[in-house]
Design a protein that fits this description.
single chain, 231 residues, endopeptidase fold (from Nostoc punctiforme), 5-stranded antiparallel sheet
């Protein structure tokens, strides 16, 4: 690893280890600039490498083309304090990739068949502009793809949310049993786990709400395209 590298660690999500990559920019001085969720709200912060890694191995994300280290660091520092985290369009990987390459992209989303850029607000506006210029076929095709990707993302997030709610119930029962057995230490630990999963559930609820808004926007635009096509 060296100054200006895009780096990542595997972070647990919904109780599963190594489920997603958490990205940041190596400043070369033992610090990392990244979207940190602790403390809330999610904010682009400069933290120690240890705080970024959380005891996990740190890897370098190779990029075929990237800015020189000084430019990468300058771009990252320019966004310090930002609080506009969005899982689908502005997550930690979007930020780090933008700093390194200028592209607001998340390969993780693409790998699971969901490209957030396809359904972002600018992309929706672009679809409607295409339609206004008479390119109804292209606009309709892109809109269908966006709707499909949204449905996939909603299904995946809903499954994660349901699993998180189940974990909340499980740790609540564990705490109750521990108290009945006089094990306050175990009950306290179980309640801490319950609180952790409640935070994750709240986070997922926000993402699901964002997807629902996008779905409504896409549905409205789909109706408008159909109306234009029938004229």
């Amino acid at each position: 690893m060296s100054r200006g590298d895009q780096i990542y660690v595997m972070r647990p999500f919904v109780g599963l280890d190594g489920l997603y990559e958490h990205h940041g920019i190596d400043c070369g001085d033992g610090t990392v600039i990244h979207y940190s969720k602790a403390p809330e709200p999610a904010t682009i912060r400069r933290t120690s490498m240890a705080a970024f890694a959380m005891g996990n191995p740190v890897f370098v994300k190779p990029q075929p083309v990237g800015y020189i280290p000084d430019v990468v660091i300058e771009r990252a520092e320019r966004r310090l304090g930002e609080q506009r985290y969005e899982l689908l369009s502005n997550n930690c990987e979007h930020f780090a990739t933008w700093c390194k390459t200028g592209q607001n992209a998340s390969q993780q989303l693409v790998n699971v068949g969901f490209d957030g850029a396809q359904i972002s607000a600018p992309a929706v506006r672009e679809l409607m502009e295409d339609a206004a210029q008479g390119d109804l076929i292209q606009a309709t095709a892109l809109l269908k793809r966006a709707l499909s990707n949204t449905a996939i993302a909603q299904t995946q997030l809903q499954q994660q949310y349901d699993a998180t709610r189940a974990e909340i119930s499980t740790w609540h029962r564990v705490a109750q049993l521990a108290l009945k057995q006089g094990r306050e230490d175990l009950a306290r630990a179980a309640l801490e786990r319950k609180v952790e999963f409640k935070r994750k559930a709240t986070d997922l609820e926000g993402h699901l709400g964002h997807l629902a808004e996008l779905q409504m926007t896409l549905d409205r635009n789909s109706l408008q395209l159909k109306q234009q096509a029938s004229i």
